[in-house]
Amino acid sequence: MPELPEVETTRRKIEPLLLGRTILEVQHDAPHKYRDTHLAAGRRVTGLSRRGKYLMLHLAAAEAATDSPHDLEFVVHLGMTGGFRLEGGKHTRVTLRTDAGDLYFDDPRRFGKMAVVRPGEYEGMPTLAAMGPEPLSDDFREEDFAALAAQAGAVKPWLLSQKPVSGVGNIYADESLWMAGLHPTQTRLTREEAGRLYHAVRDVMGRAVEAGGSSLGKGEGNYRQHDGLSGLFQHAHTVYGKGGEPCPRCGTPIEKSVVAQRGTHHCPQCQPLRRETV
Known about the structure:
Layout: H1 4-18, E1 23-27, E2 34-35, E3 44-51, E4 54-60, E5 72-77, E6 83-85, E7 92-98, E8 101-106, E9 113-117, H2 126-129, H3 142-149, H4 155-160, H5 170-180, H6 191-210, E10 255-259, E11 262-266
Parallel strand pairs: 2-9
Antiparallel strand pairs: 1-7, 3-4, 4-5, 5-9, 6-8, 7-8, 10-11
Helix pairs in contact: 1-6, 3-6, 5-6
């Protein structure tokens, strides 16, 4: 958390607050986590985009910025508990001062990161540099996905690697695998299995984005939108976080296990492990 739907919701919600605005200063006390943010000062935000779980602010070159005259990208990774807020609080780590007011980055567990770089220069961010296609874009093609899936190891860790498709984290991997009827440790998917998973990923991610993502629990650090509102997709979860509850498809109790060090939920009846060689 947050995954693609939560980051996309964040992008949509803060875009009206930042688009066309000039960044006056980026205040923080952790230069090792928020790298080269001073380069954003005096620059105008010309757009906001997202790549997987990363948020990008596109900054126009300013005539006065003689130390870095090129257009820049302000890259933000929310980590596990990061999010933007309209007011500062005890967990505020970064204050983004603009000519229209301040925006605050809260992060109770301090896993969020930021960096100002030239567009596309992601050498220090290997996950972003090697990320697969966006799941809701035309670049995400079923035939390409199936070719990769035919050689893949355990399917859930493969999805979480961000290489076959971007933005799928723990929640949406579990939900997509349930919809596709695939065991989280299934390897070397058949063409038919890969097709089911391809469409499941697109469906789950599309619905989650429209619902504003998932907000889990009530404690500090759980995902909320910048104005404090919760996402709604948690009400549509079928297996994630539902260990021991009946599968909505067949009634079998949902099993919880650990796959690749991640809590994993699946239905043993609807998602059997296929052991025969493909």
